[in-house]
Amino acid sequence: MAILIGAAVVASGSHQDPSRSADSTRMVDSGSWYSRVQWPHDGHPYESRHFVVYGAAASQEARRAVAEIGEELLAELIAEFGIAGDGMLRFPPGQDKIHIYVYRNRNPWWGARAYYCGLVIWSLEHETRSHDLEFYRAVMKHEMVHVVEALLKGRDVAFFPVAVRVHVWFSEGLAEAVTGGTAGRAIRDLDYLNHLTGKYGRLSPIAFESDGQVGDWDEEETAVACCEYHYPMYQLAVEYLLDPRGYGKSLQDVVLVFTDIADGSDFTTAFETRMGIELADYEEQFFDLMNGYLEPGISTRLRRAIVVWLALVAASLIVLVRGFARGTVKRRRTMWAWSFATLLLGPLGFLGHRLSRPRAGRPAAIWRYALGPSMFSVTGDLALLVFVVACFAIFQPRGDLDPLDPLLPFLAGWLIVRALLAAARHRGVYQVAFRRSLATDFIPMILALAGALAVLVPLHGHWWFSLDPGSLFFWGGIAAAAIAGVVIVYPYKAWALRFRWKRLPG
């Protein structure tokens, strides 16, 4: 499970934290955004200019490394927020440095938590947590944004009335926006936004005032939903406020929101004063604003390209069929084969037909003659693959179909249908027909499938691609797979034809 970042979502006084066991009489105040929990440490913290790093089992070298990262990140945040000196940061009484607890031998389901003037995060020596230093820095920076927010307000959020507290979407969205996103994939286009709202519903992030509104889910469901939907939505909502193409506000305006709260204002009043928009209006207009703010995305562009491709397919078929209608009976016999090839290959199939035609008085060159067999072989194999996928879609509509799933029935169909047809055609026994079919059909089929799967398998990894025959993306993928199959099969067919002609007597 992905590491859940951000104390405002994971913290709850009702959860029994597995990290609360007290194996030492010396404790450091640490814990969550809304409540403090006690963490044991060994009584030998590492101190730097702005940090005191506690730990149990974490080495002094690891504590020193965390303190150095903290110093760098704090300097970055002070510069980004435009905080003029330490005087704007209101430390708790009796504390003049930020506390960090690094855990090494514990495995809470979250990764890091922030609180008033401190945070809890895994040690760089932790066995199961990420050792990616850039990710570690991003996670710590996320939590440091929370720490800076609390220091600007000058009070532990637990002592703020609920109506005064900063809404979770703003606090978590700010931390995600400043770090570029740590909990999940950032929303950068309308396609992905529509994908998420299709899965979770059109849940406006501005409507979420506290983590209690996330849903009646268990911890794992909450973690998945927050990482995949809520945190990216929070990030998008704050990025729009700070983007010149959105409301064009700055991090300095955000600082004023927090200092207004420190001076006694509630969040709604401070937000509307400094951001210039009413919360109710932002909530109501959110998705309309995003429609004008986000780019269309790759799936929209691909959908348009597929529509254009289908139009070219239709035009190619019309021209092809009209040409066949004027031809001889012999030519009409090939109409269905070339029509089906053009149906899958579009204008490339039509071009293949034109190039493969022999010129008057001269036999077709091998490279021309091989075009027809290559296209017929690939489109026949792809037709069977489409049929198998369609059967899966009809009889197993709720199953998760992998691109490799249709291979077994596909191969079974080849072994049974093709070999039996060959046996009937040549009035021979199945074993002889099977060997002949193996030589003539099996290798081109394997090559065609290799080309098709080289396209379909990577496409299956994209959220917008579908193996549903009712989807435009499915037919776009089949067309691309057919083209890839022809590219791979054609050299083999050309070689086979040349080899066969060389063996002919004369």
Structural overview:
- This protein has 506 residues and is of the alpha/beta class.
- The protein folds into 2 domains: 7-293, Orthogonal Bundle (Neutral Protease, domain 2); 298-503, no CATH class.
- It has helices at residues 7-10, 60-81, 133-153, 168-179, 190-200, 219-242, 251-262, 267-275, 279-293, 298-325, 329-332, 335-345, 347-356, 366-369, 371-395, 407-426, 430-460, 472-503, and strands spanning 27-31, 36-40, 46-47, 51-56, 98-103, 112-115, 118-122.
- A 5-stranded mixed β-sheet has the order 3-4-5-7-6. Strands 1-2 form a two-stranded antiparallel ribbon.
- The longest helix is centred in the C-terminal third of the chain and has 32 residues, at 472-503.
- It is elongated and about 100 Å long.
- The model is unreliable at 1-37 and 502-506 (pLDDT under 50).
Please describe the structure with a list of short key phrases separated by commas or semicolons.
alpha/beta; about 500 residues; two-stranded antiparallel ribbon; disordered N terminus; five-stranded mixed sheet; 18 helices; Neutral Protease, domain 2
